Amino acid sequence: MTSFIAPSTSPSPAHPVLAEVVRSGFTEGHHRGSLVVLAADGSVELALGDPAAPVFPRSSNKPMQAAAILRAGLDLSGERLALAAASHSGEDFHLDLVRTMLAEHGLKPDDLQTPPDLPLDPVQAEAYLAAGGVREPLTMNCSGKHAAMLAVCVRNGWDTATYLDPAHPLQRLVGEVVAESAGEPVAALGTDGCGAPLMAIGLVGLARAFRTFVLAEPGSAERRVADAMRAHPEYVAGTRRPDTWLMREVPGTLSKMGAEAVQAVALPDGRALAFKIDDGSTRALGPVLARALGLLGVDAPVVARIGSAPLLGGAAEVGEIRAAF
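Above: the chain's sequence. Below: its structure in token form.
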């Protein structure tokens, strides 16, 4: 049974500026937020804002959800396990594997309770619409996770019609895994954009959870999820996504973004980070992530690629969104 603690209702002081928007040499905007960096021993090395305050990690919780699916007895590995922890781009190879995972357990796309949506990747969405595609549950970025949730319900004889109910055995187990991995109680329960139950934890807990996954014993559910995500990052995100680039180009890194500008990363030695941009703007996510990776000592060309966020004036580059810490 997942226990919950009531989050504080008192107003928080303004969080620090994590990124600034500079156009033609003029700072026209700011993005505030909270961030935490953990040292290899798990201690807090840097804290900006209030990283202990509960947030909804959104899709950054997906590794924990995938670990719960394994603990419930579904034997997933490789690309299938990576896709169970994915916010996929809706590329053909993603959709093909979701269909396969459903069919392997006597399920079909109509069983998915994801809301109809277009592919998450803008380039893929344009191609999909040009080919006559329409919004479908299958193309929603969480359909891999939902396919795995349905499959474990079939495996255990659990009701598939109510698999998103917070009282469902699977969702109760997810809550237990989230709390255990984060090392803190779940602070609040909500509903994610895909319809699945969503558990709130602090950013310190989120970074701790990712650290737990990369340091877990080989063969454990947590380590199996981390290993699958790192071995098949294109199934976790897509071919044009920063999570994929980072896990592919910095070996051993575990990375997962979440909606509303949440990001968590762990390096293989246990160093980790997590942050959230208060206004949910994903345009600030790359520059903040790149700066935080630099603070962790990650020195690779992909960091500059992730951090590049130019502003255009007409067809020319006239400014940038840049980290401010």
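The mean pLDDT is 96.
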